[in-house]
Design brief:
This protein is mainly beta. It contains two helices and 22 strands. The strands form two sheets. Strands 1, 2, 3, 4, 6, 7, 9, 10, 12, 14, 16, 18, 20 and 22 form a 14-stranded parallel β-sheet that branches. Bound molecules: 2-acetamido-2-deoxy-beta-D-glucopyranose (3 copies).
Length: about 290
């Protein structure tokens, strides 16, 4: 007769458990339910944008879920502000269209998003091989530029973790007007001959932490540009590439200082001058911790 009493008990604990999970859990917006097709060919912009807009409109935590597979995606901008924490969860891989797309600024853009989490282990393939021959910037100062793989503009309090980016047409990641961003376990790869493929570039940003990452590119591993402060770089492997650069400052008028840059426990291998560089005399670096470890 004992189970007569136990039964409602189990029933209620299951009920409790289910409702608890729902309350705790995030709402998931699977791009496949929005019609995305993982054949590596069809442009999935519409599905991604719709999933993003629904997730962004959600209070609490919402997840744009990209299941395993290869999704071709044209240039798209994921704009905020969003109402809660928005996660861009990449189990699958994203592939840019082939070709140059000259003067398209960005492949993927995140703008005005607070509390963005990008993670999942997926790969962003910029298909740069098909674009690099169109880069004329080595011989023309007013050259048309190729798109940056992922551009974060005015993104705050966010994390980028366990993402791989390969063969970007231009830089892999770019940050402008961003604050409190943690980047960890990212792998940014492009061949040493690929032009202007900076790993991470940032300007007018503050409180950026980059750790446990590997950056091998044809240009700067990390470029810290005008008006940027409190940058903490640790446990980063850099090379090949131009190294970690504070600079290109002084090229334009009205550029602001860079200060508070800390580089610790990094390995630079096969980089220009094997060092941290400050590109010219108008570059004021106020704090400078350089702990070189192989
Ligand atoms: C980034 O990391 C620092 C140090 O661990 C932590 O204090 C901060 O809250 C983190 N920021 C985000 C947005 O995760
Ligand atoms: C430096 O790079 C070379 C060439 O890629 C590689 O063979 C070597 O193992 C690297 N050294 C370290 C310490 O990572
Ligand atoms: C190495 O550093 C020197 C001195 O700062 C500079 O003149 C030179 O251009 C640098 N080389 C490269 C390849 O960046």
């Amino acid at each position: 007769m004992a189970h007569k009493n136990i039964f409602p008990c189990i029933f209620f604990s299951i009920l409790f458990c289910v409702s608890f999970t729902v309350a705790q859990g995030a709402r998931t917006f699977n791009i496949k339910s929005y019609g995305a097709i993982a054949d590596g060919r069809i442009d999935n912009r519409k599905a991604f944008l719709r999933a993003w807009m629904d997730a962004c409109d959600q209070k609490e935590v919402s997840i744009v879920y990209i299941p395993k597979g290869v999704y071709m995606l044209g240039s798209v901008e994921f704009a905020g502000p969003c109402r809660g924490v928005t996660m861009f969860f990449m189990k699958g891989d994203l592939r840019a269209p082939r070709g140059a797309f000259l003067n398209v600024e960005t492949w993927l853009g995140f703008r005005y998003v607070d509390n963005l989490i990008m993670k999942g282990g997926g790969t962003l393939d910029g298909q740069g091989q098909s674009a690099w021959p169109f880069n004329q910037c080595h011989k023309n100062n007013n050259c048309q530029t190729l798109p940056i793989s992922v551009k974060f503009d005015f993104v705050t309090n966010s994390r980028i973790k366990s993402i791989r980016s390969i063969h970007s047409k231009n830089a892999h990641f770019s940050f402008f007007g961003c604050t409190n961003i943690n980047i960890s376990n990212v792998e940014l790869l492009a061949p040493d001959y690929s032009p202007n493929t900076d790993g991470i570039k940032m300007g007018s940003s503050s409180n950026i932490r980059i750790s446990y990452s590997k950056i091998s590119t044809g240009d700067d591993c990390i470029a810290i540009l005008s008006d940027t402060s409190n940058i903490d770089i640790s446990n980063v492997y850099c090379g090949p590439g131009h190294g970690i650069s504070i600079g290109s400052l002084g090229k334009y008028t009205n550029e602001k200082n860079v200060n508070g840059v800390s580089v610790r426990k990094c390995t630079l291998n096969g980089t220009d001058n094997d060092s941290l560089s400050c590109s010219n005399s108008r570059c004021y670096v106020q704090e400078y911790i350089w702990n070189f470890e192989f």
